[in-house]
Amino acid sequence: MPDIDWREPSSIDEALDLLARYGEEAKVLAGGTWIALVLSQGLLAPSLLVSLHRIAGLNNIAIDRDGSVHLGPMVRLRQAELAPLVRERLPVLAATLADVANVRVRHQATLGGNLCDADYASDPPAMLAALGAVVELTSRRGTRRVSVRDLIVGHYATVVAVDELLVDVVVPTLPGGTGASYLKFRTRSHEDRPCLGVAAVVRLDPAGRCSHAEVVVGAVADRPQRFPDVLAALVGEPLDPAAIGAVAEAYAARIDPISDLRGSAEYRRQMVRVFVRRALRAALVEAS
Ligand SMILES: Cc1cc2nc3c(=O)[nH]c(=O)nc-3n(C[C@H](O)[C@H](O)[C@H](O)COP(=O)(O)OP(=O)(O)OC[C@H]3O[C@@H](n4cnc5c(N)ncnc54)[C@H](O)[C@@H]3O)c2cc1C
């Protein structure tokens, strides 16, 4: 590995100064589970690593007055999975995180790192996108909020600029009458990344018709996949097997899947059909 300078700022301001000064030359270090691999493979060669470990408060989990749950970027996946607040308010997120890798990786890996590495075969981005989560990005130039749906723009690429830090993940609590599910499908070991993962959220009105539907499919393309027009067609309709089947068919037809060691494009297309249907059914059972 080349010589890399290392800084451990004790405040966000100090970290932002370093990122602004070093630009492309600097990389943020969170849990290090992803960046250690790409550095050792020579895929990245920064001259400075800016560790977030000494900055107080970045691993907080809290709830605000409107009921949204705030997760700091240094919250470990295991920490969020076990946090009473997450388990109580967002059990589907706790369950999604519990399905990532193995317990050793989850003790080390952070939520901010998982979102910012933008690996196509990740679990949390699809679930957070389905839940309508937003992230807060800050830099010396100011602060902005970006929906998780717009965060990842391609393979290992996000809208986070080189001088920006992700400082908060804000997840709205689901209103009553809402059901949510995340189904992860692996084709290799139990600890592997997904061949695909489907996150579904549905809400029913008092008459039992769909008032909100969200389906996001992860690990099948360069970024999580969702089709707002397909979902909008469900609103006001009963979520019967025909309607659910139509969404599964539409997602299978419109996603252009990748091929990798976990499955060919054709296999993934078949599995999208199967798992979108199952995830919607599971969310519906919970909503009812
Ligand atoms: C064996 C193994 C199995 C795995 N299986 C799965 C799986 O099943 N599902 C899954 O979803 N993931 C899986 N992963 C990936 C794992 O979840 C990620 O490696 C991890 O979440 C990255 O977090 P980190 O804190 O280690 O990030 P780091 O490696 O520290 O950083 C990752 C990237 O994000 C940037 N970054 C980090 N924090 C910030 C921030 N706050 N602001 C701006 N940029 C930031 C870094 O600069 C770097 O580019 C697996 C990893 C391993 C090693």
Rounded to an integer, what's the Rg over CA atoms? 19 Å
Summed up, the helix count is: 12
- Main sheet strand line-up: 4-5-10-6-7
Judging from the principal axes of the Cα atoms, what is the shape? globular
Q: Structural class from helices and strands? A: alpha+beta
Q: Note the quaternary state here.
A: single chain
Low-confidence stretches: none
What are the main properties of this structure?
288 residues, alpha+beta, five-stranded antiparallel β-sheet, three-stranded parallel β-sheet, 13 strands, globular, binds flavin-adenine dinucleotide
Structure, explained:
With 288 residues, the protein is an alpha+beta fold. It is 36% helix and 23% strand. The protein has 12 helices and 13 strands. It has a 5-stranded antiparallel sheet. A 3-stranded parallel sheet has the order 1-3-2, with helices on one face. Helix 2 links the parallel strand 2 and strand 3. Helix 11 (241-254) runs antiparallel to helix 12 (265-287). The structure holds flavin-adenine dinucleotide (FAD). Flavin-adenine dinucleotide binds at residues 27-35, 73, 100-101, 105, 109-110, 112-114, 116-117, 122-124, 160, 165-166, 193. The site of flavin-adenine dinucleotide has 27 residues, from strand 2, helix 7 and strand 10.
How is the topology of this model organized?
Blueprint: E1 5-7, H1 12-22, E2 26-29, H2 35-40, E3 48-51, E4 61-63, E5 69-71, H3 77-82, H4 84-89, H5 91-98, H6 103-108, H7 111-117, H8 124-130, E6 134-139, E7 142-147, H9 148-151, E8 152-154, E9 157-158, E10 165-171, E11 178-185, E12 196-204, E13 210-218, H10 228-232, H11 241-254, H12 265-287
Parallel strand pairs: 1-3, 2-3
Antiparallel strand pairs: 4-5, 5-10, 6-7, 6-10, 8-9, 11-12, 12-13
Helix pairs in contact: 11-12
The chain binds flavin-adenine dinucleotide.
Flavin-adenine dinucleotide binds next to strand 2, helix 7 and strand 10.
